[in-house]
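Record type: ASSEMBLY
Status: queued
Input:
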Amino acid sequence: MSDSLEYFRENRLPHIWCPGCGHGTVTGALVRAIAKLRLDKNKIVVVSGIGCSSRAPGYLDFDTLHTTHGRALAFATGIKLSRPELKVIVMTGDGDCTAIGGNHFIHAARRNIDITTILMNNNIYGMTSGQYSPMTPKGMLGTTAPYGNAERNFDLAKLSIAAGATYVARATAYHATLLEELIVKALLNPGFSVVEALSQCPTYYGRKNKLGTPVDMLTWFKEHAVNVKAAAVMSPDKLEGKFLIGEMHNSQEPEFAAEYSALAEGVRRKFDSFQGGLRECAQNSD
Amino acid sequence: MPSVKLMQGNEACTLGALTAGLDFFAGYPITPSTEIAELCAEELPKVGGKFIQMEDEIASMAAIIGASLTGRKAMTATSGPGFSLMQENIGYASLAEVPVVIINVQRVGPSTGMPTSPSQGEVMQARWGTHGDHPVVVLAPGNVKECFDLTVKAFNIAEDYRVPVVVLTDEIIGHMREKVVLPDFETVKVTKRKAPASPGGYKPYLADPDGGVPLMAAFGQGYRYHVTGLFHDETGFPSNRGDVADILIRRLMRKVEKAEPAIRDYATESTEDCEILVVAFGSSAMSSLSAVRQARAQGIKAGLFRPKTIWPFPEEPLRELSTQAKRVIVPEMNLGQLVLEIERVIGVRAPVERLSKVNGELFKPEEILSVIMGGEK
Amino acid sequence: MSEKKKSFEHIVRERWCKGCNICVAFCPKQVLALRNGKVYAAHPDQCIGCRLCELRCPDFAIEIHEKGVEEPESKDASDVDHTIPPEAKHA
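Status: finished
Output:
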């Protein structure tokens, strides 16, 4: 951990997350992944939206941008397209990313822009005290689903893959080692990467649904997670009530910021003799 | 040497932006602003810049803020419905003090309205569209050449004061074509962003509480600082302490208030001895100018005051002129927005007459002239 | 053959520890315990250095070092006097 500590803004710790909240574990996994890859601190930008997960960048010693609810990927797209050499990471949550942020999420995936998205899924809107989100399972309780959530929830892996993300993975705050490995691969993927990290919210989701202590909630993750490789050879009835973890999708496809930059550079070279395109044309027009 | 070109208003805005150093545009197509996006898509790659059509206007505003934080000069362009969508992130740019330029080519609203017809219905929204007390500067070109000039000025104001600047045109000015004499581009004054000398000890929001402007570092250059839409202290980190909030919001608002005399811009026509003062902006001012000249030709002492900065409103020059005026006429393509500021500033010094046209058509000069004449005793 | 058993040092940053009990509960060798709401190594000799406590800790509050192999470079961060206070409230 000590070699990872340098990636934190130590004077901003301890963080605001509740005792036993999984977000710290997920953030730690991200930092360890960055440390393992020896990424240059000065070339990383971490962007977030609004919510408990989105408080993470404030604790990290990089250029950090805490934006408006759901819009992190749009801000991040501006940063990445403007400076493709920067490593752009988005930290978001289930509500921030798939509710209000859903549109920006699918378009970032469609573009396959090189942004690594760490989605901390605690199945709830924690910061605002426990409303249900598009990733709250049907039947679970939230303050705005007092009789049980009547909506189906997203399968984020399927959504990501359908939208075009080239690296999609899932782990939990219990599976901290796996989470770190998946994040390493996500960071290395030159395209849109999504790592869904299930995280326990003992204060709201946990209490409302009587899921017990943080340890109980992590134990639930342990007992209900099945690695996708193992699941491939398991019968459907054995997978009842379980969720998949591991690498869901990994493909190589052209990355948007690089593609556009190459395209634009080709145009610029053709007009190299004109300094400023329209400006020159205007000057020579009479 | 200067050059002469027949140019559309939207084209002139784009050219002004490029001259000011625009190198990042993110936008979404919407009539009657789309030409700006199309021109930027074509021209930006030629100058080493980047263009992206985002999935909506909310994302467009977000993307230009992101780009500006990496050191780019960034802009978007839109009209009513898109401008409404952009409000939350305009507030973000205002609070986080990120320089950006937004061109709003007004059309008839509210809602889908009449997409291909002009109006001046966003005067108040341009100032107060987003929640909370927030600084914003709004410029209103009155002809095609001013689309060029004021867009350059918009970028300079955005950089000098770290504030979002709206260039408020309308469908007439955006789509009409006029002969424009363009200056030598090297002679155009363009502000360079004031950055700190080095990362050591940098506090991103450290500034004189009396409207000071903090130095702005770019992401990716070793500063490793935090930008947030939460209220923050000079370190940039969130704070909800009352004293910190008070200092921040007052400094932000005072930034523009203090800058007003320096950024104030307006034009006048025959106001030295005028008794009937017409106050108009944008395309209404074009018709007003013709009406005022026709009135003068008939011996009526009419004059025109045309604000080019409409927010912050140029109170001082108008107040001075109102002391001599017997009547003030305010033609607007809305049911009374800028006139509220005019009435506030003039007070009891002269009676103010509102002249509204809201059928999606430009004022005819004779419509304004007959009001000027009609009051003659 | 006898191998020298590795021994481990447990660095706890008490100021950051929130006593959530995750590290205690999941330690495969029951090394850790809570005392006054903070973790400490009750049976450090039983530690096998799996580092699961360190990896799962949400507060970056515990760090494991192999004795005699690595020296911890950073001092206990909770001793450092930071003049900027932690956020007392959150939005």
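Annotation: The longest helix of chain B spans residues 242-263.
Annotation: Chain B touches chain C at residues 230, 235, 237-238, 240 (CB under 8 Å).
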